[in-house]
Design brief:
The chain is α/β, with parallel strands linked by helices. Helix content is 36%, strand content 16%. It is globular. The structure holds pyridoxal-5'-phosphate.
């Protein structure tokens, strides 16, 4: 398999937009009159941001132990998902295969790009059977999207099953690791990039790093795949304020590790407290910053919580999640409030 052959010819042949600053390769410059920017502006926002996100990629490279040229930076990992569709899938011809239930944006990005999305139901305990996914592929399947730990079920997918897909499928395999920081004793698939040239790993700063509002996501892939994804993105996809804030936040890795440990502790605390409640049927094991809880009457519990000022995610209408609410792990005070509200539910 040659990854190049999987890409849309129009993208391979694309001459990317060349930014004003890319064209000049000389020494120090004091006066910038090349990009039709304004000379008036506070804190540098009158200037276009770095289209190559050099500082952020350098810092992420050290934290994630992934070479900087194997890192794509997006306006959230949602942007990376959309770009993967645009690089590999020809509208109204190709298809992708994904798991169900899973993160909704694979389906939305498929629909906006006019790509068929084939959903393969996970087992009842949300485990992955590689052969079921492989059986759903055909010669027009360009990408398999996996999410591990999976949203909304919360569980890690079996590594051996993912490896089976990576080594058998003759297309790209995306492993979305948005919640990876909440897993204990787990090695990210980013360590396998050299082994599998068809692997793309997604991660984000929206979860463990507490930066959902800032919008920064990553894709880790071979330098070639990253270079093609970079051709397709908007030149200035990550704004200056985000780049500056993220560069500062990335120095706080030690704090983030502490928050993640706390979240894992509170996840257990919440699960333990909910287990004995008479209307709770099942709490699914979670490797994420949320738990999926099966209730006797999910709609009623959902409405009760909303009426008491707490919003959770009602997943009861999602295939395989009948009766389920997805509850994010909040602070310990928020956790306690939810527990005491549910303990008073009749
Ligand atoms: C599995 C998964 N991937 C990606 C995302 C989106 O991440 P971002 O905020 O980086 O776009 C989410 C958000 O909820 C998610 O659950």
């Amino acid at each position: 398999m040659n990854v190049k052959d999987l890409m849309r010819p129009c993208i391979l042949n694309l001459a990317p937009y060349s930014t004003a600053r890319d064209e000049y390769k000389g020494g120090d410059i004091d006066i910038f009159l090349d990009a039709n920017e304004s000379p008036y502006g506070d804190g540098g926002v009158n200037r276009y941001p770095d289209p190559h996100h050099l500082l952020i990629r350098e810092k992420l490279s050290k934290i994630k132990k992934v070479a900087a040229n194997s890192i794509f930076i997006g306006n959230g990992s949602d942007e990376a998902i959309d770009i993967i569709f645009r690089v590999f899938c020809t509208p109204s011809k190709d298809n992708i295969v994904t798991i169900s239930p899973s993160y909704g944006m694979y389906k939305v990005s498929g629909a906006t790009n006019d790509i068929e999305v084939r959903e393969v139901q996970l087992e009842e305990d949300f485990s992955l059977v590689a052969d079921n996914l492989l059986a759903a592929t055909d010669s027009n399947t360009k990408v398999i999207f996996l999410c591990s730990p999976n949203n909304p079920s919360g569980n890690l997918l079996c590594k051996d099953e993912i490896c089976k897909i990576l080594s058998t499928f003759k297309g790209m395999v995306v492993v979305d690791e948005a919640y990876v920081d909440f897993c204990e004793n787990y090695t990210s698939f980013s360590k396998d990039l050299v082994k599998y040239e068809n692997l793309i790993v997604l991660q984000t700063l929206s979860k463990a790093w507490g930066l959902a509002g800032v919008r920064l996501g990553m894709a880790f892939a071979s330098p070639f795949v990253v270079s093609v994804m970079n051709k397709v993105k908007y030149p200035y996809n990550v704004n200056l304020l985000t780049q500056e804030r993220v560069a500062r936040e990335l120095d706080r890795e030690a704090d983030i590790k502490i928050y993640c440990k706390e979240t894992i502790f509170l996840r257990l605390d919440l699960s333990k407290a909910l287990k004995p409640l008479h209307f709770v049927e099942k709490i699914y094991p979670s490797d994420s910053n949320f738990i999926l809880v099966k209730m006797k009457d999910a709609d009623a519990v959902y409405n009760y919580l909303v009426n008491n000022g707490v919003i959770v995610r009602n997943r009861t209408n999602v295939a395989g999640c009948s009766g389920c609410l997805r509850i994010s792990i909040g602070s310990s005070i928020q956790n306690r409030e939810v527990i005491s509200l549910l303990e008073s539910y009749i």
